[in-house]
Amino acid sequence: MPEWHLQAKSNEKLLLFFAGWGMDEHPFLHYSPVGKDLIIAHSYTDLLLDKSLLAGYQEIEVFAWSMGVWAASMVLPELQNSNYSISTCTAINGTPFPIDDEKGIPSQLFKGTLDTLSNKTLEKFRLRMCGSKALFNYFLERAPQRDIEDLRSELIAIEKTAGAKSAAAFQWHQIYIGKEDRIFNLENQKRAWPGTAYTIIDAPHYPEQLFKHLLR
Question: Which residues have CB under 8 Å from 149's CB, separation 6+?
Fold first, then answer.
């Protein structure tokens, strides 16, 4: 199952955040939503959902970023059609199609990332993700504490799962697309949401200012 980090405050409302590939809880712990518990999902080596973590909340707000949009699209449809009180679902710089030449990350780019993954290429990926040296340095202060082999295993699992099973129909209420996204590019994201309204924002793939706004 994805790994879950719960900041338990015993609130009646929950903010459920699906992070992107290569993440853990550390880049997001400083977002402490007022009046809500926070669960951070990450590490998508499989997509089994522990429903017990979500039981008892009167309201659940879902936010998903990057590869987390696909992960949420895979595991949450059954909750959206059940007794769990999901009030809003927001997708940020990601699509339900993780490896897709038209609506996700192009297959050759994904394969290149997997085949060449090292500490050096990870640093380059994170710089592209952040879009600027200043934001990159900010991210590194809260960097995930995972090693290369762990990240490689996650990529392999995503490739395998994405090739075997398509994301189910899932209702997203709000979509944000970063104009400067160099991971999920702008046009692919726009093609991924036919008939769904989206908002273009002036942000890179890692939209720290938007996170500040949405996750606090």
Answer: none
